[in-house]
What does this fold into?
Amino acid sequence: QSTWGFLFVFCAFSIIMSSQIALYSYWRSSCSWRVRIALNFKGLQYEYRAVNLVKDGGEQYKSEYSTLNPSQTVPTLVVDSFVISQSAAILEYLEEKFPENPLLPKDPETRAIVRRICAIVGSDTQPVQNLRVLKKIRTLFSTTEEQDAQQNEWARYWISSGFTALEQVLVKTSGKYAVGDQITLADLFIPPQVYNAERYKVDMSAFPTIVRINSTLSTEPAFEAAHPTKQPDAQ
It folds into this structure.
């Protein structure tokens, strides 16, 4: 047993040391942020390749990046010659490729709970208020004042709606973290969405469990290092 355990650890260490990892990211991107946390938590060294989503209309639309990621979104992860986009797919891939410091529980029921929380944020909340959607909303109004007001109201509505559901779930599932007392994938989705909530002035007093968990996570080294203000392209 000890020999097999040693071999497993050795093989996992060898994979980590031999893999060349690059992350195409934007400092304030929620989806990129989740992946940065996972990479940090698993102790994986990676090259940060900035993609400015707003400069000159957005670098994600340039042909070089579009060839890499036809969805024209961030993040995109490159591990050696393997290219994968979409943050949920990236997170699952990292969990399987680099099993050390796991972010998914062992039993299927708790895994399902973790994935449910990820989906409440990653499917029901964040996509409805991301940059592409907000830019489209702005085109529906003529003045800058109207554009700002309608964009902000839209973001507040959908974040508040998502957080109303998330708060009710976390009241039942949380311990120190989102699901019990171990950091899981569910926790990776919380700080980026709270950041967006604060940016669009959502009243967070209605979501004390979310606030508590976010505060706890903010002191974790993997989360601190992934914060937008710590990124090389931060503005």
Notes: Strands lie at 21-25, 47-50, 76-79, 82-85. Confidence is low (pLDDT under 50) at residues 1-15. The two ends are 51 Å apart (CA to CA). The first strand starts at residue 21 and ends at 25.
